[in-house]
Amino acid sequence: MADQQDPVFQIQRVYLKEASLEQPNSPAILLEQEQPSVDIQLAVEAGQAADGVYEVCVTATVTTKIKDKTVFLVEAKQAGIFEIRNLPQEQMNAIMGIACPQIVYPYLRGNVADLITRAGFPPVHLAEINFQAMHEQQQAELAGQQPEIPQIVTQA
Fold it and tell me: Model confidence over 81-109: pLDDT tens digits?
């Protein structure tokens, strides 16, 4: 019975959940000689899929523009299914906010670069991300917001 209480962390599957590419101003924008600006946004979300099974998704949105016109817009969501059991609840948040995204993110980086290259553009390589720092920043923001909520409620 001791085996049932041992912590479990296993990758079940990593997959590309969603990908889209838009070139709304083609072909005219492709004739422009200016260097486009590139904006990259990342998001992490996690949820329970079944008992002890969780899905963690990392989404990247890459927008390139010349002046105010979009050259291309890529959005990709890479997901992983993880079996996580017998871990203390206080560790679950960090596991799903740091460890799981670190596993999924390299696949996302490759898929985004490949999609952009297949669209006929030079690849955009997403930078390495420190998910621990990102997670700690999110937690600090949440902690800063939590005291405000009871104050508003008590004043009402």
Answer: 999 999 988 888 889 999 999 999 999 99
Which of 87, 40, 81 lies closest to 57 in space, CA to CA? Answer: 81
User: Taking the model in full, what pTM does it have?
Assistant: 0.83
Range name among 27-41, 93-107, 139-153 with the lowest pLDDT average: 139-153
Cα three-residue angle 81-83-84, rounded to 5 degrees: 125
pLDDT beyond 60 at 77: yes
Helices (H), 19-130: 89-94, 100-118
Q: How many residues does the chain have?
A: 156
Domains of the chain from N-terminus onward = 2-155 (3.10.420.10)
C-alpha separations of 26 from 32, 37, 138 in Å? 11, 16, 38
